[in-house]
Specification:
Elements: E1 2-7, H1 11-22, E2 27-30, H2 56-69, E3 73-75, E4 79-82, E5 87-90, E6 94-102, E7 107-108, E8 124-125, H3 128-131, E9 139-143, H4 147-157, E10 162-166, H5 176-183, E11 188-191, E12 194-201, E13 205-212, E14 217-221, E15 224-227, E16 231-232, E17 263-265, H6 277-297
Parallel strand pairs: 1-2, 1-6, 2-3, 6-17, 8-15, 9-10, 9-15, 10-11
Antiparallel strand pairs: 4-5, 5-6, 7-16, 12-13, 13-14
Helix pairs in contact: 1-2, 1-6, 4-5
The chain binds NADP nicotinamide-adenine-dinucleotide phosphate.
The site of NADP nicotinamide-adenine-dinucleotide phosphate has 23 residues, from helix 4.
């Protein structure tokens, strides 16, 4: 029997663990992939208060080590369901807990085009810092208009021969600072007001077909495509214990409280106005406080 089970070892989940382990609680962390979550993909983090500049990997690893040093029990298992009596069922085991924090973040949004899955690892990637090295001196494209796309294009501009940045509008969501830096790169070309309509190749991706707002088609020969069009939550499995909005985000009140007593949500998985590292760790600490209050109540 655990005091709390934290599902997801990204910044939100790890922060909850940090606070709860320091409060001497019996904590189990369950993670389906690897610790760190989305921030692992960030080349540089320069908007976290008190830290001038750090790679996403270093940030995640520091936080992970901090939690491991407190004796965290982290199991790499995929959660399939939370039962109504707060049993967490994974692909390997079942665990009982007094409280649960859902900190599962969100997954890469797909273009949902034919061949997209077939070309993953064969020209298509969702992580420039993970796979950029495979495209040294090659021609690549990044699609998206948020900070991830801008940072990916910047990162790739230092490796690849040529980088196309494709965005469906002419305005970017990402920060001006990133955009201005990108405009100084001579090997980066912007293709705006355009969508990708097909992904072509035999075994590997060889080209993409673009269609602009005036319906003009253009074929672009590329070696790699980095898809950076945001993230989507995967909370359907929890819908017996939490309410979801139309986009699949968990509806919370008072930041981290779900409709079920003792089940809390932290980080990108919940409906919130800003999904950033700062708000993820903020949620993590708030969720741990909520857990401590709930545990006191049930004593
Ligand atoms: P995002 O801000 O949601 O941007 C997604 C982009 O993809 C948007 O420009 C959107 O276009 C485009 N898009 C969505 N669906 C599309 C589709 N089907 N086809 C083509 N384009 C599509 O996602 P993000 O860039 O991953 O950033 C997520 C959050 O993390 C943001 O708050 C961001 O600031 C933060 N972040 C921070 C850092 C950092 O601090 N170092 C790094 C990366 C990300 P529209 O604009 O037209 O909707």
């Amino acid at each position: 029997m655990y005091d709390t089970i934290i599902i997801g070892a990204g910044p939100a989940g790890l922060t909850s663990a940090l606070y709860l382990l320091r409060a001497n609680k019996k904590v189990l962390m369950l993670e389906a992939k690897s610790y760190g979550g989305q921030i692992l993909n960030a080349n540089k983090v320069e908007n976290y208060p008190g830290i001038m500049s750090i790679s996403g990997y270093d940030f995640a690893t520091n936080l992970y080590n901090q939690v491991k040093n407190l004796g965290a029990d982290i199991k790499y298992e995929t959660v399939l369901k939370i039962s109504d009596d707060k049993k967490v069922i994974t692909d390997k085991n079942e665990y009982q807990s007094s409280t649960i924090i859902i900190a599962t973040g969100a997954s890469n949004r797909k273009l949902n085009l034919p061949n997209e899955t077939k070309f993953i690892g064969k020209g298509i990637s969702y992580c420039a810092t993970c796979d950029g090295n495979f495209f040294k001196e090659k021609t690549v494209a990044v699609i998206g208009g948020g900070n991830t796309a801008l940072e990916d294009a910047l990162y790739l501009s230092n490796l690849a021969h040529k980088v196309y940045l494709i965005h469906r509008r002419s305005e970017f969501r990402g920060e001006d600072k990133n955009l201005e830096e990108l405009k100084t790169k001579s090997n980066v070309e912007f293709i705006l007001n355009s969508n990708i309509v097909s992904l072509n190749g035999q075994e590997y991706l060889e080209s993409i077909m673009l269609k602009d707002n005036e319906e003009t088609m253009q074929e672009l020969k590329i070696d790699g495509l980095f898809i950076a069009i945001g993230r989507i939550p995967e909370n359907e499995i929890f819908n017996n214990v939490v309410d979801l909005d139309d986009n699949g985000y968990i509806i919370a009140h008072d930041d981290v409280y779900t409709k079920t007593a003792g089940i809390f949500v932290a980080g990108d998985a919940r409906l919130k106005p800003l999904r950033q590292l700062t708000t993820a760790v903020g949620d993590g600490s708030l969720a741990s406080l909520a857990v401590l209050k709930e545990l006191k109540k049930s004593k």
